[in-house]
Structures are given as C-alpha cells and as structure tokens.
DNA sequence: TCAAGATGCTAATTCGAATTATTACAGGCT
DNA sequence: AGCCTGTAATAATTCGAATTAGCATCTTGA
C-alpha cells in the first residue's frame, strides 16, 4: 500500500516547511501570518496534484473539528427489517449533513459481547466532531457518561434528564395525542381506552401522558391497558381506542369488521404512529405521522448549535394529523 | 466540563512515569518489559479510582490505521427511491465492517456544483483507510485517478481497466445469462431475443456478451434490440426473450397475456436481474438473482486484502437461478 | 570482591497536524 | 554603516499514548 502522504511530504515537494503547508491548507491570513502568493500557489498546486487531505486523527488530536458527524445506533442501520424505522431519520440526517458539508461516520464497530455500546474499551465516538444518537431507547448510563465527558451529541427522540439535561430533537407526542382525544371528544366520544406499554421509552410515556392530560381536561373516561381484546373493550362501553402500535390498531379494525362491527360506526380506532412492526396500509387508520425526516434534519442542525455555542438544545417537533377513515361520531 | 485525565495525570498520582502507566494499561509482559507487582497494583488502583480510559484518538495516531472504511456513492444512499438498490449492498458492507471492527464513513460532503464527485477541490476520500465504491456506473476518469494516486479502493460491480486493472467484486452476469440460454435451448428454444441496452455499464455489456457466447455455442439464433414490441418478436418467430430490465420482462408478460397468448406456452420470458425500477412481484419471472448482500460483504473483505497486501482483487460472484414460471418448452 | 546477569523503571522519541515564537532578509532612512 | 520596519518563512512545541533504548539497582556465582 502506498504510504499515506503527510504534510511533511507535501512540504518537501513544494520546497517549504511543514508549518507553511499547514498555514496554506488552513488558509490562515491572521495577523502575524504571511505567505507570499507565489508560495501559496505552489503549495496548493502540490496539494491538488496529490489529492492530499489532512489526517483526521492527527487533526483531531490537536484541536477539534473534522467536519465528520457521527451517527450511533444500537443496531445495524441497513438491514431491511429495520429500514422502515431508521430510513427516514437517516434521510434527514444525510440531507442536512450534505448541506453543511460534513461527512457521516456510522459507528458499526464498538461492540462488547455482541452488543453495540457507545463506550467500549476502544470507543471511537470521539473521532467525530459530534454525534447523533438514534434508537427508541438509549442506555441511561451511556447518556450520563456522554454528558460528564462533555461529548457533543444530540439524541433523536426526547430523553429524560440523565444527570443533566439531554440535548434532543423529538416529536411532540403529548400534543399529538391530546389533539386526537380533543377531536374524538368533539365528535361525542366519552369513554376512551389507551392500548400500549405507556412506559419504558420516553416516546411511550409521552403518549400516555398526553392521553391522561386530555381525558382529565375534558372530564371524560380514559383507561390504560397494555393489551386488550375486542370483547373487553365493548363490554366496558368504550367507543374510542388509541393504540400505540400501528399494527395493533390495524388488527383491532380487522377483528371488529370480522365480527360484523362497523369502524368507525361502532368503534373508532386511533393510532399513535409508532410503527415498529410493518402494518397494512389499506386500512387508512386515523392518527398522526411522526416527522422523522425533519427530526433527522433538525438533529443535525441542533448538533451544529451544540458544537458552536455549547448549548443544550431541546426541541419537540409537531406531528401531523392524519385524517384516515377510522374516527367517526358516536 | 471536567478536563479529561491523561496518562500523565495518572502517572503523577501513582508516583510513576507516563511510560509505566502505558505499560500497565496495556498489560505488556513482553521480553524486556517488567513491572513489579506492587507498582502495577498501585497504578491499576489509581486507574480504577479515577475511571481513566485512554484517549482513542491519540492511540490511533500511533498506528497507521484509522479503522475507517469509506463508502462512496454518487447519490444520497438513504432516500427511499434509491433504497431498493443500495440497501442490500449496504447491509453486506455494514455487516462485514462490523465484523472486522471498522466504522463506515459516508461521503456526503464531496459536492461540486450540486453533484457528488470523488475528487473535488477539497476531496476527503483519503479520510478513510480505504473506500468502497457503489453505483451502476463509475466515472472512468475518477477510477483512473484513484489508481494513479494509489488510493486503496474496491468497486462493487465489475469494471473495465481504467489505465490499469480495477479492483472489484462483481456478479457473474455472463455465466448467469449463459445458464439461462442453456436451459432454454435444452427445452427446445432456437430463436432468442435480448432486449436491453447491452452497453454502457459493464453490467449490461457482460449480460449481452454472455448471451452472444451462449447462442454462438449452441448455434442458435439470437438477436439484440434495445427495445421491441410483442408483434415484432412474434413476427420474427422468437420463442424466448431475455430482458435486461425486470420491469420490461414483466410488461412483456402482461402484454402477451392481454392478447390471449400463453406465457410460457407461446413465449418464454427470462429476466436478467437488473431491477432499477420497481416491478410487479406476482408474475414470478424466471431469471436469476444478484447476490447484492454477499457482494457488499466480499467487497469489504477484498478491501481488507488491498489494505494488507496491496493486491488487486477481482472477483465475480455467481448469481442464483430463479425458477419462476415464465420459462417453458417449445 | 567484582563481573555478569537479572530486575524495575524512565527518558526520549514517534505518530501528523496546528500554532507560536523566532529568524532571515530586503529595502528605506538617517 | 547602523537602525528600523515589513515581509516571508521556519524551528520548536503541543496534543496523548505507545514504544524502545538504556540507566540504575540488586543478585549471583566463582
């Protein structure tokens, strides 16, 4: 393998010192730094000819900034089983990274005992200027360590504090769920059920919280169950069901129609956008969409702010209501 | 943000030298390196107490490997319109990269006038230890420059020489197409047509070449046309059609059946696996599959060989025959 | 008792780039 | 000549860890 070129090599070729090459490369014009036009041109010509680029490792050892943004996921991002979930986020991330002229470093390597970890014995997280974290849940210890070590990062998805506020760009599930309940109440619904975990990941907790707030505000009846069969719901007199999982909502609609019930005539089904499993499209569930692509874009922008101003941005993007055909009047 | 501890700090605390800390940390026992048990324990205790971990950047500077593999595509990889094409390759790439402990650098920044280029005024291609190139076609000048500059890379897809042999991992389209013709001849077919560009990208040329070799070897009739209507084919007495594009094959089957013809009774349709446009799945075309995922894996392995032994690997992986239901006897 | 050998540790150097302090030199002025 | 002022470039240092050569000190054995 041809040895990688160094500034020393470039310097030799251009007949100058390594320091001069560095100064030309970084286009330094500050007071106290002067390079003759002719010399500058000569060095640039050698750089152009050789295609030299500074070794990011060495560069980063000395100061900061590689124009490399890291993307960390606990799982492989490409496998098609995960494609539906990661894809839109990554689209946004790539788009924005392209815009600000940064390359993306996908951390695929930091494994300990078969599982990906942010911090392993030889974590490369610091190779990047900063890092976007992607995944439904993030290890709290990892988050805490990121904070204490002062590694610039932004989480996609809201995160609770982990020994300090966690910079994030999330979706405003609370408002989105409240909006669904508001609409249903306006249509005459008075007895609601929320089906889903409602805990664990912040995204689940936020949805449930939005649900509870909304039913409380309207003074209507709302229960939460992890799972529920059709009979159970009917027996309880429930007229509107909200399911965390898209596929659960779809299954419910199919089950109801299979029994000769009308949706939304006899039962309204609303879904809360967490499509971790593929679901049939043709049902046209009423609910909301998660602005995944936009979240990816904003996360990169937020990371830029972190890097430039050492801030701790926290932002929730609005979800868009999806009309669908499974919400009706009572 | 608390300043990060260095080995120097640890050394001071333990009352030893920085070198000793490094030796203890790396558990060096080689000949010529001896650390007393007592000293070793003292250093380890300080390390444990402080939670010190070596700065990976500094560590990397020392050996000449960044453990970063580049992935270059002329287009964004994530957008869903391209997902079908890139996805399987990337799966394989990610998988193998994970295996050998390398991170992936996606070049999203190298744009000149809106288009991605490998070499721009400020090419970052050398950020990676080596690079995998992905795309149906690659700019020949870019390839030539990669070769002359001695940048370690592997192309996914066979490539003609570009001022020298181009390292690549491709699919053996020639053999795959020959195999299809062989099977058709065995079933009694004597008049063939090849529909598709048959030039431009190597992948197209290879298919056509395989076709020509096969018909020549069997002494049967084979014509090549970029496009052809059903009538044209029937008039010429053709009984077996090979289409480069999957969607062309599907269209042909539908057209034939629309006219009351039987496929494969009256006409056999074979497709050559280049699915650049989405095609209906339900037809069950006979043809072959391209081992995309495996190509991705092998490309990374090949790149490893390039990096370690400065070789120029060239490899064609076999395509797998797909039985389908559109090939029959005459 | 003293050379030979083992033991335990450290000084110094390296990696590649960025930065600061400093030198070298030309030209203008007294 | 002697002195100052710009200008242009370089030597030297820094970042943090890894490595190697080598310096003390302590044992042995004859």
TrEMBL record, chains A, B:
Pfam families: LacI, Peripla_BP_3
SMART domains for this protein: HTH_LACI
Domain HTH cro/C1-type residue range list: 2-53
Name this polypeptide is given: LacI family DNA-binding transcriptional regulator
Domain HTH lacI-type intervals: 5-63
Recorded GO MF terms: DNA binding
Keyword field: DNA-binding, Repressor, Transcription, Transcription regulation
InterPro entries assigned to the protein according to its UniProt record, in alphabetical order: Cro/C1-type_HTH, HTH_LacI, LacI/GalR-like_sensor, Lambda_DNA-bd_dom_sf, Peripla_BP_I
Lineage: Bacteria, Bacillati, Actinomycetota, Actinomycetes, Pseudonocardiales
